[in-house]
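// run 5 | inverse folding | seed 20
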């Protein structure tokens, strides 16, 4: 059974984590993907007079460490935990995105008797965005005056330590050395 069928209702609420007096339900097919599988859940967004302070549905999801598939009317979200877990699995274990996603579906239902909506394309898109945001973070673009839009082409690239670069890993006078010493 899904968490929604069991009666679980998650109320995202306000920025100060207080309960909203007039919650607005999310779509009935809202799906959360976590390291324990794919789950259909009932979500409630803030819909009261403090909705402007609470933020958009996307901001409310991020506040609760859920990465939404879209900024407007999301119906799928991945937990930050599954994004971090997949990132490590892909780097250390060389696991493909497809295999990781299929393992999440097997964790949800290993019998294949329950219909699970295919969210693989959403998973790929969110992972791509997550990795880009991580690159921006590691490059310090969040605190730069130009911000993300000020990032020029190739600025996030990691320099290859084996490639010859003057002043870094080439000795002084390498360009004036005889051809047999270069």
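// decoded
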């Amino acid at each position: 059974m899904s968490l929604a069928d069991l009666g679980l209702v998650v109320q995202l609420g306000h920025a100060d984590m207080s309960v909203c007096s007039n919650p607005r339900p999310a779509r009935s097919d809202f799906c959360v993907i976590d390291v324990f599988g794919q789950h259909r859940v009932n979500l409630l967004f803030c819909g009261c007079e403090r909705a402007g302070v609470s933020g958009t549905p996307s901001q409310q999801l991020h506040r609760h460490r859920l990465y939404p598939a879209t900024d407007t009317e999301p119906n799928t979200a991945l937990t930050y935990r599954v994004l971090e877990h997949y990132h490590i699995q892909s780097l250390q274990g060389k696991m493909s995105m497809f295999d990781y996603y299929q393992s999440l579906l097997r964790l949800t239902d290993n019998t294949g008797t329950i219909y699970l909506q295919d969210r693989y394309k959403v998973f790929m898109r969110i992972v791509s965005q997550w990795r880009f945001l991580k690159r921006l973070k590691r490059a310090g673009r969040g605190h730069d005056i130009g911000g993300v839009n000020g990032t020029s082409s190739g600025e996030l690239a990691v320099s290859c330590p084996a490639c010859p670069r003057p002043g870094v890993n080439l000795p002084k006078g390498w360009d004036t050395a005889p051809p047999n010493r270069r």
